[in-house]
TrEMBL record:
Species annotation: Candidatus Terrybacteria bacterium RIFCSPHIGHO2_01_FULL_48_17
Annotated protein name in UniProt: Thioredoxin domain-containing protein
Lineage: Bacteria, Candidatus Terryibacteriota
Highest taxon of the lineage: Bacteria
Alphabetical list of InterPro entries matching this protein: Thioredoxin-like_sf, Thioredoxin_domain
Pfam families: Thioredoxin
Domain Thioredoxin residue range list: 3-50
């Protein structure tokens, strides 16, 4: 059973998060995956959920987590690095 989930934690006005949006859309289409998206700047419940996965690794957004590999990405990254992160697990 595949229990891999891709999580995106972002801030609504975060410039780095906005810069990652086209990369997220592209990788979702190319790899036929969907990110669970959680806005954390205006939603305390989502911020708490981010803390549960972040565990002090990043402390900011955008924060991406792959539950299949337990790997994460902090901040904006190049597309090829992001695609590898998504395709693992």
């Amino acid at each position: 059973m595949d229990d891999k989930r891709l999580l995106e934690f972002y801030g609504g006005e975060c410039p780095h998060c906005i810069r990652m949006k086209p990369l997220i859309q592209k990788v979702e289409q190319e790899l036929n995956v969907v990110f669970e998206k959680y806005e954390v700047w205006h939603n305390p419940e989502n911020a708490k959920k981010m803390d549960e996965y972040d565990k002090g690794h990043c402390g900011g957004v955008p924060f991406f987590y792959n539950t299949g590999t337990h790997k994460w990405i902090c901040g904006a990254v190049p597309y090829e690095q992001f695609k590898i992160f998504v395709s693992e697990g």
